[in-house]
């Protein structure tokens, strides 16, 4: 099962509480219902979702079924989340302004195709930039995108 699907299963408050309870103790549906203050039918519905997701397994003990958390799926989820927090070795920042070609624009907006040293000082479109902002970024008062438009 994919990480996003498993996270969606645990996103429900009641299902998350069931997992928290079952981590330390094995409970039957009746005990979970009393502890959570909800009906046995509601607990059964949540357990069904958790079982389909691979989070729980049931163990028959006499007349009742007690539920146990499959801790391996939680460990696997934690590992996948850890991977998201590790930056790639070859981080490459791609500026939309640099990646756009002359025939392409982003959502109908004209994007600057120049290599700005300080793009945070500029606005989204050359026409929105003050002369001071352009000078700080490009070293002069002419925005290279303005000259590209004039050449067309």
Structure description:
It comes from Desulfosporosinus acidiphilus (strain DSM 22704 / JCM 16185 / SJ4). GO terms for molecular function: DNA binding; DNA-binding transcription factor activity. It holds the Pfam family HTH_5. By secondary structure, the chain is mainly alpha-helical. The protein has 2 domains: 83 residues, Winged helix-like DNA-binding domain superfamily/Winged helix DNA-binding domain (Arc Repressor Mutant, subunit A), CATH 1.10.10; 56 residues, no CATH class. The protein is built from 8 helices and 2 strands. A two-stranded antiparallel sheet has the order 1-2. Strand 1 and strand 2 form a beta hairpin. The longest helix is centred in the middle third of the chain and has 15 residues. The C terminus is likely disordered.
Give the topology:
Blueprint: H1 3-10, H2 13-24, H3 29-36, H4 40-52, E1 56-61, E2 64-69, H5 71-85, H6 96-99, H7 131-138, H8 144-151
Antiparallel strand pairs: 1-2
Helix pairs in contact: 3-4
């Amino acid at each position: 099962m994919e990480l996003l699907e498993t996270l969606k299963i645990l996103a429900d408050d009641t299902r998350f509480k069931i997992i928290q309870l079952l981590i330390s103790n094995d409970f039957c549906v009746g005990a979970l219902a009393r502890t959570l203050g909800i009906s046995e039918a509601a607990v059964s519905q949540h357990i069904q979702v958790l079982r389909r997701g691979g989070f729980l397994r049931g163990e028959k003990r006499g007349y009742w079924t007690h539920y146990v958390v499959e801790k391996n799926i939680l460990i696997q989820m934690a590992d996948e989340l850890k991977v998201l927090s590790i930056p790639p070795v070859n981080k490459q920042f791609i500026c939309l302004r640099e990646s756009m070609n002359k025939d392409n624009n982003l959502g109908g907006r004209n994007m600057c195709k120049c290599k700005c040293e300080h793009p945070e000082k500029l606005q989204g479109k050359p026409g929105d930039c003050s002369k001071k902002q352009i000078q700080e970024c490009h070293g002069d008062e002419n925005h290279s995108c303005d000259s590209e438009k004039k050449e067309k």
